[in-house]
Amino acid sequence: MSMSLSFSLPLSLSLLNYITVVICLFVPNFRFSISSKRCSRMSQHSIRRETAVDMACIPYKLPTCFAKLYCASLQQKCLERACCWSPVDEANVPWCFFSKNHGYSVVSENIEARLTRMDAPSLFGADIKELIFYAEMQTENRLRFKITDANQARFEVPHEHVQAPSSPPTGPLKYRLELIQKPFGLKVWRTSPEKLLFDTTIGPLVFADQYLQLSAKLPSHNIYGLGEHVHQTFRHDTNWRTWPIFTRDSFPNGGTHNLYGHYPYFTCLENESGQSFGVFLMNSNAMEVTIQPAPAITYRTIGGVLDFYILVGDTPEAVVDEFTQLIGRPFIPPYWSLGFQLSRWDYGSLDEVKKVVERNRQIGIPYDVQYTDIDYMEDKKIFTYDMEKFKELPQFADYMHGNGQKYIVILDPAVSTGKRLNGPYEALDRGHAAKVWVTEPDGNTPLIGEVWPGETVFPDYTNQACVDWWVDEISRFHKEVKHDALWIDMNEVANFVQGSSKGCAENKLNYPPFTPRILDNLIYSKTLCMDAKHKWGNHYDVHSLYGYSMVLATEKEVFKTNRSMVFTRSSFPGVGKYAGHWLGDNAANWNDIKWAIPGMLEFNLFGVPYVSDICGFFDDSPEELCRRWMQVGAFYPFSRNHNAQGYKDQDPAAYGADSLLVKTSKHYLNIRYTLLPYLYTLFYKAHVNGETVLRPMMHEFYSDSKTWGVHNQFLWGAHLLITPVLDPGVENVEAYIPDAIWYDFEKEERITDRKEKVNLNLPADKLGLHLRGGAILPAQRPDVTTTYSRCHPMRLIIALDDSNAASGELFWDDGESRVISDLFLLDQDVLTMHVTHNGYTDPNNLKFENITVMGVTGAPVSVLVSDGTTTNALTESQVLYLRNLELELGKNYTVNWQDKYRNSRHFDCHPEAGSDQAKCEARGCIWEPSNVPNEPWCYYPDTHGYITSNVVETASGITVDLERNTAFPSQRSQSRDISKLRVEITYLSGKSLRWKIFDPSNARYEVPVPLDLPAMPETEENNRLYRVQINNKPFGIQVIRKDTQEIIWDSAVPGLTFSDQLLEISTLLPSNYVYGFGETEHPIYKHDLNYHKYGLFTKDQPPGYKLNSYGVHPFYMGLEKSKYAHGVLLLNSNAMGEQTTHSLTQLVLNALDGLLVSTGLVGSLFMNKNKEDTFKMIIIIWFCSGQELPAHPCSLAWMRAGRAAITPQGKQNRTT
């Protein structure tokens, strides 16, 4: 809640500069030739420049039309500064830029270097002649360097947490520092692999009393952070964008102006390796930061020192860890504060507040916290309440507590100078007595401004006397009204008059020689005069620390006993150690719902994960907008619906108890409350390990460049992907699904998409919610408040990954103080629950009663719990439900379930007779005995096979280069492995495709059978019934039917072998209904998928069970779950075999030539189609091998639920 008053003044350089700019617009075209050697990159008359690396010498924003004119007066100023002048047509590119004659040179060097200013004209006067450069290698990952006046102390941020380490680094440094002598510059390198991260030689160092500038070239355009602003995308636009940084009470309306927080901090993702670094400038003065295409960054600040911290990490998350170690880890919010919250400015009366509370209780919406804004106060005076409209406020707090809910009040810093209605204003009087106010320059007279209550004074939270007074006043007020936390506002600090009621003196603090591009271009606009006095110094230096110092004072009261919460609008790095933040006074529009996501992601980078607001502050919130905002807001770390004075109510019940908004809000808030144990654990991990809570996709999937710019989706931790609808009238959303196994969270179904954009159908009551394979999420049955939820039984939600494994953690305490910590691990159907710390006994005797496991392959044969208890097991589709468990919270357990085919993704590595552990491990495979008949005891590791090295996609197909994974030995020493292969996939028609795997270096035998194939491939993607995905490690091809999303061919499994005389490929099958393969005798038409083997090689012998006979037909038809069908033909004439389970393995001796897959309709129609169009509706997968087949009479093949393999005839497997 705030009021924003806008004042417009010209550039604050001087009136003369402003007039000069205006006059410039009318100067006739004039080109100036560059003749000085200092601009040696250009010939005398040339204007060709490497503009992306030029640093502006005149950093003012010029009028838009200036790009088409040549301004003689600014040109003259440029030359007077000994800079280079070169007009260009490109927008935002500086015409006046620094030469190499600017800056400082090194005259002595060690851990310290003395710098002397080189002879060059001054930009803004008062240049400092001698500087000290000081560098500290603080940790293995953190470098600090500081540049300051060598002879006189300057203001430095007195940060509460940041300090030098007590001991030097113990391990090798991940960085090295290089100093350049003349002009002075520095380079920060990553040591392994060597990479230049931060290079200041791109531009000169400028260090004057009120103008400090430093530029640095960066290694990539993947720049995130800097704030606080509205960034419409998470990744920065590096095309000459300038962002002012100086705390300001203003609307976040999408412009580039400064907002409530001060964050000169960014992270940079270097490349697909995930290696990243962060840069933090510890400086609280007004500044601006320019990002340009080099890519490079320029800092321009008007005071303090240049105090930089470079944080080097192996991943983006590691950089956040380093930054929060430096500034302070985020606090763990009380459990109740993760519940849904309601607020608005100006309910009008306590009776109206109660109506809102009651109507939202009646609709049964989960709802934990109610706020009141400044309207609860008497005449908006802090530490009071309205004795008429809110006379029963103390009882209201009890009324909320009696229903398991909480109550929060707002406090502003400004204190009215007036008396109360019926007596003295005692808080003011006590403040006067203790001399706690910000003063005029004389250091004694309180500065007078104006805020909500009218004329006000402002507490100086940097003064210990003020802190003591503030803590005492909060304590006194809490004794009257038992509020549960504090919401602090207007602490940028906001002032409704310019500077003070007297105005501001004309001096260099109020009118500095350079003003960054802050809102209004007036440094004291809507705040205090810059020469006002605080204990820490002039307001000029500490303005952006006002909210930070207020948080430090406030936390001393609210954190005295149980964990509570401070919620602040203004912030500075380190505030997240004690407080959360909301994104300010946004509006009810579709832009602001979009921009909230980059804002939340940035504050997680800044170490403030408890963030955001719902449905918009200003304007009436239409039902569709608020409905979509309530859906996504159910997954904001801070989930509060808040709106402003004079607008329609927007609490959920206001839209009608039977409205779609209420229905979908309840649904997703119930999911939120179900997952609060997981969310609470994420905050614990942020507090302990510095992890983000709300996480950008690129933090988890940095090797995929398509994630680097995603800003309309986000993750809870590493595992829960949220895809909201952010536009009106939309029910289909383009979303990116990163490279992992994902499950539809609500349907509990595995989806086939990965590493691609998809269209999600999200009707009016839905948003996208997907769970990543490998996750174990602790959960709890929800209720209408967290107080009641915490009494209910707990459960585990498990999503299996490619290895049938998962892991997770639970942090649990009373929600306010003590701790218990559980670690969950699941591997191959064994769930381990291990307590890592137990200092808490839950009064509700909580137990885990249910476990849901997504991605299982079949019903369990048995379920064993380590304490001897039994459970009910139910399997639906690929989901296992374990019910009626009694696993007590805080105790260790194992839960083991035996799936009849639990190892159906194990592919036989030693199908020959005589397999044993030694032979198995000699092949680099895994030995694991099994009591399931025919199940392989020796199986391939997950990454065995080939690895994708290059993929080229065209309209007609895909070409893939492969390299053998040499981490594993050869499977057959007598048959030479081919290390490099090529795959060619051709989209033959809308219903068929062909793929061929071959040795690109040597021609190999191919079956000379003519095929009636389409003359031209199908290049129109919309005409194809299928799509193709490539898996990287191990290499595999997935063919997916579009309309059902079923994977009908999936060779993304281990075991691909390609040698001179043995080729092996496996694929998972979409269902148990497989028909074909011949000529062999089958007892039934449909194949039994229980590890049966079939040889395929023509032979004159009578038909017999599983014996190869007169013909070879390596073709099968598979029915899908949808009852569609497809056909697959391996076009190969060599001896081969198949094994069936829920997968299919095909082995070929010598030559594996081709596979044809036909996408048909329903079963019988498919067969008819296949009979007349076998080679017209095909996916052809060609395998080219080498010489002619030697004298092996036949081969065996075996099928199981998903794969096939081949061995020579005459060699029996261990089981048959």
TrEMBL record:
Cited Pfam families: Gal_mutarotas_2, Glyco_hydro_31_2nd, Glyco_hydro_31_3rd, Trefoil
A GO molecular function term, named singly, is: carbohydrate binding
Biological process (GO) annotations held by this record are: carbohydrate metabolic process
CDD domains membership: GH31_MGAM_SI_GAA, GH31_N, Trefoil
| Keyword terms of this UniProt record | Disulfide bond, Glycoprotein, Glycosidase, Hydrolase, Membrane
Task: Please give the Gene3D superfamilies that the UniProt record associates with this protein.
Answer: Glycosidases (3.20.20.80), glycosyl hydrolase (family 31) (2.60.40.1760), Golgi alpha-mannosidase II (2.60.40.1180), Spasmolytic Protein, domain 1 (4.10.110.10)
Q: What does the UniProt entry say about where the protein is found?
A: Membrane
The superkingdom of the source organism is Eukaryota
Asked whether the UniProt record includes Disulfide bond among its keywords, one would answer yes
- InterPro entries the record matches: Gal_mutarotase_sf_dom, GH, Glyco_hydro_31_C, Glyco_hydro_31_N_dom, Glyco_hydro_31_TIM, Glyco_hydro_b, P_trefoil_dom, P_trefoil_dom_sf
The GO cellular component terms are:
membrane
Q: Taking every annotated instance into account, which residue ranges of this chain make up the domain P-type?
A: 37-100, 893-942
Which PANTHER family has this protein been placed in? ALPHA-GLUCOSIDASE (PTHR22762), P-TYPE DOMAIN-CONTAINING PROTEIN (PTHR22762:SF133)
Similarity field:
Belongs to the glycosyl hydrolase 31 family.
UniProt-recorded name of the protein: Maltase
- Organism of provenance: Sinocyclocheilus grahami (Dianchi golden-line fish)
